[in-house]
Amino acid sequence: MAALDLLGRRGALRIVWELREGRVLTFRALQAGAELPPGTLNARLAELRAADIVVADGGYGLSVRGGELIAALWPLMAWSEAWAAALQALPREADTASS
Question: What pLDDT, in 10s, does the model give residues 12-21?
Answer without folding.
Answer: 999 999 999 9
